[in-house]
Amino acid sequence: MSTRVLSKKEIMQVIEMAPAIKAVENVYTMKSAGEAVAWPTVFHIFEEGQRDLDIRSGYLPANHIFGHKTIGFFAGNVERGLPNLMATICVFDEFTGAPIGILEGAYITGIRTGAAGAIGAKYLARKDSETLFVLGAGNQAAYQIAATICCFPGLKKVYVADLLFPENAERFVAGIKARLMDELGIDASGVTFEATNEPEVTVPQSDIVITVTPSRKPVIKKEWVRPGMHFSTVGSDMEGKEELDPEIFRNAKVFVDDMTHCIEAGEVEIPVKMGILSPENINEIGNLIMGNCQGRTSDEDITVYDPAGMALLDIAAAKVALDLAAEKNLGAVVEL
Prior knowledge:
With 336 residues, the protein is an alpha/beta fold. Helices cover 33% and strands 28% of the residues.
């Protein structure tokens, strides 16, 4: 029983942002059309705010594969010289149960999560959006910016904020253009990047707001919101996490990647529990992509997209990486 094992370096040679965005859109439409299955997520917190993990799994009938991703956040890894986000993806054959591949999962997670946040903006933000605000200056922020530039080539300004450690945002901004080009082949020469520690000033100046933090209390306040803004809440991927003031949802048009999972553990969890947001007023992004429902209908609408994360995205991207790696003879093929 042979299995292909791919490292981050090998995955980076075969996965690019623009095709990843298209692959994520395809998974969203399959999910909303009932052609894919996301199974319940397992969560565990080892130490609040320091170490946690979740195990996400799913089934893609059209591809005849199923799989899972085990991903965790370990704050102390920085001191150990390791990334604080650790992930492994396993892909299996539907008919035999044999493992097709084992892949380093953090890079695929970064790419597909960046694609997810930007897809929310692509379908819900105003088409003339020029200014992006990113809350969080960690590794994921780079992928969010890369994907948003792909979807909004007219983007002119990006604010980056790390409210706990402002120096992180300064370092991030200093190196982001080179990283986008060197790692992802994206030219951001026409974009101005600015670190900010005044979200009360810069959030209202932004057209698109993407949040990528592990916060468990609201950071973005209702009074900062102006008509026409779009929010993609990427950081809220476990029960109890919260980045937006729940009152923002009261008059917003709200979309999610997976209805059940997001109500249980996404940004919409708390507004729903508080009675501010009704599940009847939430729709899946796949339905919007397929044209089965309306999204933004005016430049005044406030829109929110909550992608709590589906293993389906990781599994689909992993299968693409495995196929391309096989064509290029990359990775190690091992007998189990």
